[in-house]
Structure formats: C-alpha cells, structure tokens
Amino acid sequence: MIGALAGDIIGSIYERHPIKTKVFQLFDPKCTFTDDSVLTIAVADAIMSGRSYEDAIRRMGRRYPNAGYGRSFMGWLSSDNPQPYNSWGNGSAMRVSPVGFTFHDEASVVKEAGKTAEFTHNHPEGIKGAQATALAVFLARQGARKESIRERITLEFGYDLSRTVDGIRPRYAFDISCQGTVPEAIVAFLDSTSFEDAIRNAVSLGGDSDTLACITGGIAEAFYKEIPSRILREVKTRLTKDLWALTDLFYRKHGIPEIVQQLDVLEM
Fold this sequence. Notes:
Layout: H1 2-11, H2 35-49, H3 53-63, H4 71-78, H5 91-94, H6 97-102, H7 106-118, H8 124-141, H9 146-157, H10 165-168, H11 182-190, H12 195-204, H13 209-224, H14 229-238, H15 241-254, H16 257-267
Helix pairs in contact: 1-13, 1-14, 2-3, 2-15, 7-8, 8-9, 8-13, 11-12, 11-13, 12-13
C-alpha cells in the first residue's frame, strides 16, 4: 500500500503540469498526498476495523475535505443520503490496493474490490478498473511473473496490455477514466525494472500523474517486495501522523514481511 501512497505523492505536482520524461526530481518540495492516499488508507482502515468501505471512506473523506476530490465525489461525500453516481472514473482503482494485499484468493479479491467501488463507481468500467487493479496486486504479491500477470488481466478484463510505455507516451493525454488509466498504469509496471522505475514510467506518461503512479505503485510494491528506504522515509514525512499510524498498523497486520522489516529499521 505504501507503494500506492508514494506514487500519489510523487505524481501530485504533475497532475496539472504533466511531463513526458522519466528524468525528474522524485520528491519535489511541493509534493503532497492527495485524495488517492486518503481514500487508499480509508480502504485499509475498513479492512482492519470491520466497518463498511462506504462508512470508512466517508469518515476519512470528511476528515480531509481538501484533498482534491472530484466534483461528483464531493457531492457524494457531502450528501446526507449518498447514492452511487454511475462513475467510470479512475478513483475506484486508485484506492483499492489494500484489497490485493489482504485477501488470499482471486475470487475474494475480485469480490471485495467490487465492494470498494460500487457505492460510488457503480458503472461497469468503474468496478472493472478496481477489480483489475486489485487482482494485479494480488497476483504480483503471490509471485506471478510479469507475463502471467499480463495474460491474466488481459483475459479477465480485456485490457490491451501489449503496448509499451514508449509507445503510449507520445499520444497519451490527461484521462480520468478507468478504461483510459488502469491499462496504462499496469503497463508502466510491466515495463519497469524496479519499484522506482515503475513510478517514473507512470509519471512520464503525462496523464493523471498522481493516480497513474498510485495504481502502478501498489502493483510494483507487491511484485518487487521492496521500496527504497528514502522513499519510505519521504512518505512517512509527508503524511499526517494519523494517516501514517493507520498505514503502519495495516502493515503490521497485512504487509509484505520484507517491507515490514524496512519499517522497523525506519523506526529505529
């Protein structure tokens, strides 16, 4: 999950000022967490606390009302009687990575991912984007090879994952849809050589950079099972104390052992 948070923070300054290069300062002083991180941590909180995903997201969203939510989500968040609004936006995919780290079989992962989406993003593409992302995280966590992940996600969800980052980048533009974000984010992971390289791939596409990198980061963390210590340190520094406390607690319960060890060293 920290991989998703790192991607969000690193990509945050490029959402409105996209770049088309992998050569950039990883953590600009203005980098900050956005709604992607807030809602990802809310999903993790729901898993740990047993409250519904909807309740956890409303609680956390209202605690951080200025995190950069879209207009439709803000309307849902402020409503006394919130209803799903048929969204196919990539917000369902950016918040789902904790599901892929928690549940232990494909059917459960896909089912739970749908639950994290359906109370807002009940459009088939919104649900599909969340499910594809969570399944990619799960497969990576289970040790699947990249080609197996590519084949499985393509077969299950019909995304075109045959492309490359270099092939996508020249014509890719800002896109907030799941169908225009999730495949590209997965390709950014598939084309990578390390966790950091995956994040750089995602940001370099030049689209909805924080969300692209958030989705990519969750999958890359699950696959590489390591995040550079300097990135972990920056994430901890840039989150609020309560957001970091929930993140740390999630790792103690559900995190990849190698990264839990890194966190232990970070606390020393």
